[in-house]
Amino acid sequence: MKFRTLMWIIAAAVAVTAMAAGVAVFVNRYLNTKKDMDYIECDCEPDPDVILDDAE
To answer: CA 41: distance to chain centroid?
Structure first.
């Protein structure tokens, strides 16, 4: 195999990898839904049955 052919194969592999990374960034940035997590806040008392002992 000639050196020139080897360099074309390496360049093609790098190009395919770069395209895949670019598509992954595009999908993550623009198509990924950035929805807020709507957590339910609770102002409840701690469970009295749980013993909170910091000594152990």
So the answer is: 27
Using only the alpha carbons of the chain, give its radius of gyration: 27
Q: How confident is the model at residue 54 (pLDDT cuts 50, 70, 90)?
A: low
Its pTM stands at 0.52
Tokens of 43: 């102002």
CA 54 – CA 56 distance, rounded (Å): 6
